[in-house]
Structure formats: C-alpha cells, structure tokens
Amino acid sequence: MNGDAGWPDSAGRPVVFLLEADTAVERRVLRRWVHDNAPPESPPHEVFVLRPTEQDSGVDVPPELERRLAAHDDPLMQPLRMVWLPPERDGARVARLRDVLTFTNPRNPTAVQQLLLQTRSG
C-alpha cells in the first residue's frame, strides 16, 4: 500500500476512519495502514467498515458507528479506501489487451487476485 497519504490533522479531536472495503484483504490492509501510521501523540481513533448495499445503492452503516456518532464529541470523519492500479509498464499504468482477453480488471481485482497482489508486494 502506498504510504503517500499521511495521518489526518484532527486538531486534537478523535478520528473515526470509515473504511470502504469489499474484501477481507482490503479490510486487513486498511486496518494495518491505520495501525502503522498512527502517530504516538495522535488523539484516539476508531475504525469502522462501511459496505455498499446493492439494494438501494447506499451504504450499510454499522450499529457501532451509529452509537459512536451519538457521542456528540465532534470527531473527524476520515474516509479511507483501497485503489487498485494496474502494474506500471514502460512508465504507464494502463490495462492491456491481455487483461481484456482474460476477463480481468486490474482496477477491480477479485478477492483472490487481491491476495496474490498483496503477497507479491510484501
């Protein structure tokens, strides 16, 4: 995972990370990013996973998040999600004909492909 994005400046407020993650691989990588990037002096933070619903094109809000928001302590809401990029080839990140012929989408890999990509990248 690219570490270019830094920890949000919350001005001392609690940080609530809203993870948009469809697979266990994405959830694990995003939680690890939060854990690895939290500065020692950072305010308390919490992580909630949001899952898109097909029923109404909305988002399933976990009950724990609803309870958290009822605390009224003005937390910083920070969205966090994975972006899958095709491999860089000759300085460009583009899908190739091979991707089309094998019915794969490097920008939306399956859970198995995500696991393989994560294993290869370390």
Features:
122 residues; alpha/beta; four-stranded mixed β-sheet; 4 helices; 30% helix
Summarize the structure.
This protein is α/β, with parallel strands linked by helices and 122 residues long. It has helices at residues 24-37, 63-69, 97-101, 111-121; strands at 15-20, 45-52, 59-60, 76-81.
Give an account of the 3D structure.
This protein has 122 residues and is an alpha/beta fold. The protein has 4 helices and 4 strands. Strands 3-2-1-4 form a 4-stranded mixed sheet, covered by helices on one side.
Give the arrangement of secondary structure elements.
Elements lengths: L14 E6 L3 H14 L7 E8 L6 E2 L2 H7 L6 E6 L15 H5 L9 H11 L1
**SSE string, helices as H and strands as E:** EHEEHEHH
Q: Tell me roughly what share of residues is in helical segments.
A: 25-40%
Beta strand %: 15-25%
Largest sheet composition: 4 strands, mixed
Mean pLDDT: 79
Shape: globular
**Please, how many helices?**
4
Number of DSSP E strands: 4
Structural class: alpha/beta
Oligomeric state, counting identical vs distinct chains: single chain
Low-confidence stretches: none
What is the strand arrangement across the widest sheet?
3-2-1-4
End-to-end distance, in Å? Answer: 9 Å
Global Rg: 17 Å
